[in-house]
Amino acid sequence: MPTHEPDRRGTGPSLERILGLIDPGMLDVVVAPRGTGVPVTDVVLHDPGEEREDDGARAAAGLILLAVGVEAASPEALDVLRAADRAGAAAVVMRPGARGPRAELVEAAGRGRTALLTRRPEQGWTEVLGRLRTALVHSDPAGTAGVAGLRPGDLSGLANTVADLVGGAITIEDPQSRVLAYSRLDHEPDPMRRLTILGQEVPRWRVDELRANGFFRTLWSTEDVVRLPADDRYAERLAIAVRHGSEVLGSIWAAADGRPLAEDAAAALRTAARAAVPHLSHHQTWGRAAARAREGAVHALLRGNVRSAQEAGVTADRPYAVVVAEAYDGQGGESYDGREADGRGAGAHDAQDAGRAGRRVLDVLALQAAAYRPGCVTARSGRRLYVLVPAGEEEADPARALLASARSVPREVVLAGAGPVAAGPAGLPASREAAELVVRVLRERAARLPAGEARSAVAAYDEVVPEATVLRLLDRVEPLWGSLSGPVHAMVEHDRAHGSAYGDSVTAYLDASCDTGTAARRLNVHPNTLRYRLRRARELFGVDPADPAVRLLAEIGLRLAARRPHRAKSP
Fold first, then answer.
1. CB pairs under 8 A, 24+ apart, for 373-377?
2. Among the listed residues 85, 84, 41, the one whose alpha carbon sits nearest the alpha carbon of residue 63
């Protein structure tokens, strides 16, 4: 009757507890003749075609049977219910159909022992199976001493907790050796841990090495801790597989982290492997889909939809600051309204290449954020990572504290800014906008440096208020500026059409507070050359920096012109 033999170990958690751990409204209890306190041993798919009268009885004792393809209003529903009842099933789940369960089916369920449940129409069978199995393993209290209290799927919290128990650095990996979570970096990681974190997976050559020497074969075939001795390259490691029955969900690795592992590290890892089952099962069955939904809720919240706070994982009465991290590649980053923050952006091909180049560093920063503090919420958007950091009284600048924990990890250039702390969800869009402005200020600073000299930078909004205010003003003026004309417009258009450098010369002169010598050095030209260009700008276009009105218009127009792509200038 069931598609595989049930797990008969123990009596299992109650049906009530299982239903309490899944999403409300996923399943409806139609009839529960023995109540919902009956024990559950497993959740399986029911295949009526495999049922046999000679051995069907007692084959499903304690199971929740998912009657895929069976509608509660159909004639075969009664036969399925009776067979499940004879087999001792705890419950059977069917599709309700348009008319709901037939009266005859409800009456039969009331006279039997098996609870009758129906699945909500908007829920898929795959999701129901995954949620029920995750709830089942999460209900098992065995072996969770010391790691209780984590929310389902909180792999980063699990890694940090296990690190405290083991006295070393923890990495949680899937069966393909990809990093799912790692503990906070309290000490400088050894080269292998650094490579693993940077690449978010164990390097392929290392995987091949461990496969060739039989390490993985041993790891996947035993339920005990496997030791990888230290050598002249890497510190000692302990590893254990995480299993749910015969299925391998992943592995937990402990590395000596600047100090020897605790004497009872192996015992702690055995406990951790049992405790990790519900979390890895949660991640495997619906964690990725839930993460995508949660990321969408974060984006909605940052746009002002306060109702998305709970789904985003944001506590309503807790203060947060928005941190924006951008993988800088010399191009303009996208702002939240979808337009380019600077200029019209790179071409599609260039943007694709830039996205590939920045993906790794943003993923590393997202992992760092999760390990940095419980409650950090992240969401990606193009080359940017948005982090909602719970603000603590001990930290005035959560952005700097967060980036300080990750500064030794990324090798690419990262620009990060923090908005003001928001007292609640309603203030998050303003904090996000301020953080984006900080990143734009840092990007403009980086763009003024010689090629290849840009460095990672982080700042809080109150450190860049003047520059951020100028950006806000230019954003408001830009639509009007395009409809106007005048000396500065004529000079900019001439530079674009002929590749001349009058605009660069005037910009350098104004930035140097009208000091010709300083401006000439910045342009790498002779002062007389600069004087000639400034004189020609007056003669050709009427741009005279000595005129206060023209000087103000030049400041505005040339800053706006710098946002737009144009031809390479002549020296």
1. 373/402, 374/157, 375/313, 375/315, 375/318, 376/402, 377/294, 377/298, 377/312, 377/313, 377/314
2. 41
What distance in Å separates the CA atoms of residue 570 and residue 495, rounded to the nearest whole number? Answer: 10
CA–CA dist 164, 246 (Å, integer) = 29
C-beta separation of 270 from 224 below 8 A: yes
First-to-final CA distance of the chain: 82
Strand, helix or coil for residue 360: helix
Task: Among 194-203, 293-302, 344-353, name the most confident range.
Answer: 293-302
Mean pLDDT in residue range 448-471: 83
R_g over Cα of the chain: 31
- Of 385, 389, 384, give the one whose Cα is nearest residue 401: 389
The half-sphere exposure of 120 on its side-chain side, counting CA atoms within 13 A, is 11
What are 542's two structure tokens?
Answer: 């009427």
Instruction: Look at residue 570 in the predicted model and tell me its pLDDT.
Output: 35
Edge-to-edge strand ranges of the sheet holding 377-381:
377-381, 384-390, 320-327, 414-418, 457-460
Would the CA dihedral through 440, 446, 452, 458 be positive or negative? Answer: negative
The gap from C-alpha 16 to its chain's centroid, in whole angstroms, comes to 32
Query: E strand or H helix at 262, and its extent?
Result: none
How does DSSP classify residue 285?
A: I
How many CB atoms are located within 10 Å of the residue 370 CB?
23
Proportion of the chain in helix, strand, coil states, percent, rounded to 5: 45, 15, 35
Residue 236's alpha-carbon distances to 163, 229, 231, 340, in angstroms, are: 15, 5, 8, 48
Structure-token pair, residue 520: 């000439």
Given the structure tokens 């005035």, which residue do they identify? 396
For residue 102, the tally of other CB atoms under 10 A from its CB is 17
> Residue 322: which residues within 8 A CB-CB, separation 6 or more?
302, 386, 387, 388, 389, 418, 419, 422, 428, 431, 432, 434, 435
Q: Report which of 281, 283, 256 is spatially closest to residue 180, judged by C-alpha positions.
A: 283
CA distances from 567 to 445, 490, 495, 499, 533 (A): 21, 16, 8, 6, 19
Phi and psi at residue 327, to the nearest 5°: -80, 105
- Taking the CA atoms of 358, 361, 367 and 370 in sequence, report the sign of the dihedral they define: negative
> Which whole number is the average pLDDT over 490-506?
89
| Half-sphere exposure for 375 (CA within 13 Å, toward CB) | 15
The predicted pLDDT at position 244 comes to 75
Dist. CA 170–CA 172, nearest whole Å:
7
The whole-angstrom separation of Cα 91 and Cα 93 is 7
Is there a contact between 181 and 155 (Cβ–Cβ < 8 Å)? yes
Record the tokens describing residue 85, joined without a space.
């009842």
Is the pLDDT confidence value at 353 over 50?
no
Q: State phi, psi for 159 to the nearest 5 degrees.
A: -60, -45
Share of residues in the chain with pLDDT > 90 (%)? 18
